[in-house]
Amino acid sequence: MTEFTPWLSLAGGILIGLSAVLLMALHGRIAGMTAILAGIIPPLPADWAWRAAFLAGAVIGPLAYIASGNSIEFAVPVSMPALAVGGVIVGIGVTYGSGCTSGHGVCGMARLSPRSIVATLVFMAFAIATVFVIRHVIGA
Question: Are 4 and 36 in a shared domain?
């Protein structure tokens, strides 16, 4: 069962939106995590420093939350091989889709990009289909 946390979810959404707006306003870049991560893999591009800082913030934020005495409870109900296969499938998807959910869903849809709107609809359709098949067809 998932605990519904509207205020924490709203705060997280505001922070994600704020970071995307600030990155676009200050650097003229889209906050797509796949492209940001790819930009810190050697050979390093000239603008690698802001990418490393952005990713460091994505790691330091949750660590600061945990250090303040809070916990982040989660469960992964699948095996490591299933996670690895899922990671490969996602990697293929972001390659062929020219971006990930953060780039298309957060930034692209906010810019009313038709390509991003279609990509996000495809992401969501496949997510819904996957959950349906796993829960109701396979029965896991």
Answer: yes
Q: Which helix (H) or strand (E) holds 82?
A: helix 80-96
Reply yes or no on whether the pLDDT at 118 is more than 70: yes
Q: How far apart are CA 18 and CA 12, in angstroms?
A: 10
Tens-digit pLDDT profile for residues 63-73? 999 999 998 88
Same domain, 135 and 82: yes
CA distance 113 to 44: 29
Do residue 7 and residue 60 come from a single domain? Answer: yes
Among 20, 48, 74, residue at a domain's last position: 74
Per-residue confidence (pLDDT) for residue 2, from 0 to 100: 65
128 and 107 within one domain: yes
Distance in angstroms between the alpha carbons of the first and the last residue of the chain = 15
* List of residues 6+ apart from 99 with CB closer than 8 A: 32, 34, 35, 108, 116, 119
Tell me if the pTM is above 0.70.
yes
